[in-house]
Fold these 4 entries.
Entry 1:
Amino acid sequence: MNNNNTALKIPNNLQRWRLLLGEAAQSQLGNLSGEAMAADAALEWLYGRDPDRAARGERGATLDPSQLTIPDWVNTIHTLFPQEVIERLERDAVERFGIVEVVTNLDVLSRIEPSESLLRAVLHTKHLMNPEVLAAARKIVAAVVQKIMEKLAREVRQSFSGTRDRRRPSLRPVASNFDFKRTLRANLHRWHPEHKKLYIETPLFMSRSKRHTEQWDIILLIDQSGSMVDSVIHSAVMAACLWQLPGMRTHLIAFDTEFVNLTADVSDPVELLMKVQLGGGTDIAKAMRYAQSLIHNPRRSIVVLVSDFYEGGSPHELVRLSKSMVQSGCTVLGLAALDSAAKPNYDRDMAQQLVNVGAHIGAMTPGELAAWLAEKVQQ
C-alpha cells in the first residue's frame, strides 16, 4: 500500500487550472503529461459522472470510454494523491455517485487503506456484500474501530479514574499514584554525594478519590439515520469503553422508526456496527419510551440521546417523555453530534423544546462525553 509520502507534482499553476477545468480548457492551458495526466484521468473517471457540472463551469466530461477499472482507479488515487484527498474521492465515489463497487468488490477492498471514511462507506453498503466481501469488510471495520478504541479508551479511563488525593497516603504500590515529592522529601537523608544518587528505601504513594460508589445505568439511544453515521460509529466504541468500567451498566439501543436493543453486543463494537441498519425514518419518541422502561433508579440513570432531533413521530410525545424522565430525577442528555469533529446539524426548535423541559443539549467529541458523564456520576 502506498503511504503517499510523495505528493503529486504539478509543474505550474496553468497545469493546476487545467486539472480543475478539465479537457475543455486544454486548448488554452496546454496538454498534461506524466503524473498530471494520470491524475486528470482519475478525476475524470469520478467527476465526469456529474451531469450538472458543465452548467457550473467546472470540469467538462467527455464521451470517451473510461480506461480505468475500479481497482485501477483505487490504486491510482492511492499513488498520486495525499490521504485527505483520497478519503474525499472515495467518499464521493460511494456517497455522491453511488459507486458501491468501491467497497463491495473484494479486489478493491484488499487495496484500500482502512480509514473512517471507508468505514462509513462499508456501513452504508454492507447489505450489498456477498459473504466473502463481507468478511473482508469486517476486517476493515475492526482495524478502524481498534484505532478509535485505543484513543477513546485512554480518554474514558482518565475521566473515570478519579483524582489523586495527596492528603491521603496509600499502601498500594501503583505506579500511576507514585508521590514523587513526598518520596523525595522522606529520603533526602539517603543522598550519596560521591555516587550522586538518591537511594530510596520506601517509595510513597497517594490514594485516589472514588468517582462513584453506586451502580449507574447509562442508556445510549442512537439515531441510525444515514446522516448520523459518524455518531453511530463513535457511540458504538463509547459504549464498549463504558462497559468496561466498574459500577457502570451500559445499554445501547439503535433506532429509526423501530428500535433494537444491541446491549448484548455492546462489548464488541465491531459486531455491533455490523448489525446497525443505516437509513429509514425516525421515531425518537418510541425509542425514548423504551429507554424509560429500562430505568430502575432514575437518580442513578443517564439517558444519552444521540440524534439530529428531526422527529418523524410525535414531537409532543417526545417532549412529554423527556419532561417525565427529568422530573423523576433522570439526567437526559441530547447530542446533536458525537464524533471527532462534533459538527452538529439538527432541528434547533425541537432541541430548544427539550431544553425547556430540563434536558441538556449539545454536541461533543467522545472524550468530552466521557468527561461529562464522569462529572455527573461523581456528584
Entry 2:
Amino acid sequence: MTLLGIDLGTTSVKAAVYTSDGSRVAAAARRHVTRRPAPGHAEQDPADWWAGLTGVVAELDASGALRDLDGIGVCSQVNTHLVTDVDGVVLHPAITWQDGRCAAVAGTLTERLSEQDRTRVRGGLGTVDASHPAARAAWLAEHRPDVWSRTASLLAPKDWLLAGLTGSAVADPISSIGLVGPDGTHPDWLDLLVPGLRALLPPLADPASVAGSTTGAGGLPAGVPVAVGTMDAWSALLGGGVAAPGDAIDVAGTSEVVAMAAPGPGGTAPGIVTFPEWRGLHVHAGPTQAGGDALTWAAGVLGGTPGDLISLAATAEPGDLLFLPQLAGERAPVWDPALRAHWLGAGFGTGRAELARAVLEGVAHAARHVLGPLETAAGGPAASLAACGGGAHSDLWCQIKADVLDRPLRRTTERDAGVLGAAMLAGLAVGTGTSVPELASRMVRVEREFIPDPAERGRLDDAHGRYLAAQQALGPLFR
C-alpha cells in the first residue's frame, strides 16, 4: 500500500509518498511567493501553486514513487480565497489568510447577523473577521466590481486543487468552519452577508470521502482516488497523532497553531476556535498570526537565513528581552488585526544574538497565550504536546517552547505532519485504514521528547506576564 499526501501551504507545495507504516518513500517541495502590493495586502498567484504541484509530481514520478498508488489526499492553507468564472478561470490573485484589507467591511457584516447566528461564525468566535469568505466577497464586490460580476465560484485553495486534479471542486465542513449550519449545509444567513454567496460555494463532503479520481492533470497517473481532504492545520493534527481526548499539538508552521482534543462537546473559551465533531474527535484550536513567519522576517532584518538566526540565538544567554511577534495583527486568542510587533527591553548589551533568541521565545509566548484558554475549552490541562512543522526541526526552538509552555514536547519523526495527515485521509477514504486511532498507531512515530527545564520556570513565568502586559498596553497605540 502506498498513499500520496499533498499540502498546498502558505510558503510551498509539499508532497510525499508513504507506506502503510508511515515510512516516507519519497518527498518533494516547491516554494511559492506571497506578494504584498499594498499595506495590509497579502496575495498569491494560483498559477504558482499549480507550477509547484507539477514540479513535485514530476520529481516524485522520476523517482518511481508514484507507481501503484492506492490513494491521494490533499490539504491546504485556509482562510485564503480565490474566485473563478464559469470556465474555472481564476479572476483575481488569491487573497491569503495574512491579508487584512477586508477588516473594515468585515465589521459591517457582523452587524447584519442575529445573536444566534453570530455564535456559529468561525467556530464560535462570534464575528466576521477580515479572513472570512463573506468579507472577501464583499470587498471584491465593492472594490473589484468587474471581477465580482464574472465570479461563479469562491474557493479555498484545496477546493481549487481538487477541481484541477479531478474536475470537481469539493469543500469540507472542517475547512469551512463557520460556513456550515447544524444540518451540514451552507446556512441561509450567508446570503444576508453577501447576496448570492451560498451559490458560489462548492458542495460539502466528509474530508475522508472520495472527491473523484485523477484525470491525469498535473502529471499524476489517471484513475487514482482522491480524498476530499481538509485544512493544513487539521491535517497536521492527524499526522501529529491527535486521535483521542487529551491529545494536544503545536504545529510550528508559517503561523503557530496549538490544538487539543476534548472528551466531548460543549467546552468553549474566548478566542478559541471550536471545530464540529468529526469521527469522534472534538477539537479546539488557536492559530496565531506569525510563527515561522516572524523568524523569516527577523532573518531578513538582522541578516542571514532563518537557520543562521537560530544558530545565532543559541549563542545568547537567556535574558529579559521580549519580542511580540504580531507583525500583522494577531489571531488567537485576541483576534486583533491592529496589533504590531515589538522588541522590548533592549540595552547597550543587546546584539543580534539576543534579538534572535527573543524572537524564538516570543513565538513560544504567543503559543502559551493560546494554550491557557485552549485547555479551558478542552476541559483540562495537556499532559504533553506533539510538535511538528518546519519550526520543529530546531532542537533549540523545541526546548524553548517546552520551557515556555511548561509542557513536554514530543517531536514527530515526520515533521511535515500535514502531508502525512493528507495521506492518512486518503487511507480512510479508500479503506486501507479503519479509523483515526488505528492509522495514528501505525503511521505516526515520535522521534524525541523535550522536557521543560525547571531552572527556567521563574524567569519565563515572569516574562510571560510582561509579554501579556506589553501586548495589552501597546495595542491601543496602533488601533
Entry 3:
Amino acid sequence: MATRVLIADDQTLVRTGFRLILDADPGIEVIAEAADGESAVRPARKLRPDVTLMDVRMPRLDGIRATGLLAGPRVDDPLRVVVVTTYDIDENVYAALLAGACGFLLKDAGPRLLVEAVHAATKGEAMVSPSVTVRLLAHFTGGARAGGRPRRDPGLPLTSRELDVVLAAARGRTNAEIATDLGVSLSTVKTHLASVQGKLGARNRTEIAVWAWERRLLG
C-alpha cells in the first residue's frame, strides 16, 4: 500500500513541486494539499495521512502550532509530521521538533531526500541532514558551547551500548549506519532504540536526539 501524504505550504509552487516529486514515486500518494496550518489540521485529522509535510511559516495557523495539534505530546493518536523549512538554523524548527515533529527537511534538499524523508517517517525514522541536525540542536541547547569530550553521566538511565546508539542517532546517523559503526545487527539497533524510547519517554528518534543535546552528551 502506498504511503499517503498531505502537503501543507502557503506557496503554490512549492506544493506543486512536492506533489510532482512524490507522485513520481510508486510507493507514495499525495492525498491532499493545504495552503495554511488551519486548513491542514482538519483534513489531516479526517484523512489521517501516513506523513504530513508541514511548512513552518504559514498564515492563519503556523506550522509549529499545527504540528502540535497533530503530533503534540497531548495528542492521543499522533500523526507523523515532517517540518519543512527554508532555513538551516531556525528557532521555529526546533520548537516544531519539541511540538512533536518526527523530523525536518530543508526545502532545497532535493527530490531524492524529500522522497527518503517521507519513507523514513513512515518507518518511524527521521530523515535529517546530519550537519543540520548538529548545528540546529547544538545552537539551541547550548551543546555547541559545552566543549570537550562527550559527558557520560553515570546517573543516566541508559546502558553503555544504548548511549552509543543515542549519540549516533543524535548526530543524524541512520539505523543502518549505526549498525555498521557499532558492528551490530540492524535489529539490535532497533531494539536499543526501542528500549531508549521506553526509558526516556521519547516518541521518536528526534526526541532522543533533543534529549542528548539538551544534556550536552555530544562534544
Entry 4:
Amino acid sequence: MSCLISILENMKPGVDFANEISLIDSHILDSVDIMSLAMDIEKYFHVEVTPLEIVPENFQSANAIYEMILRLNAAR
C-alpha cells in the first residue's frame, strides 16, 4: 500500500490519499490521471489493468485502488 500512496503523492502532491474517499467525485483524479495511474500500477505491481477495471468505483480511494490491485494479482 505504501508504494501505491507514493505513486499517488507523486501525481498529486498535497492530497491526503490515505484518508480521501472520493478521488473521482471530488475531481482530484481526472481521466488522464487514471490512465497514467493504470500504467504505473501495471509497471510497479506487475498486473494488467484492463479497460473493464477502469471504472470510478476502482479509483475512488487509495483503498479501492489497492483492493483492485490485490484482486488483479490474485487472478494471475
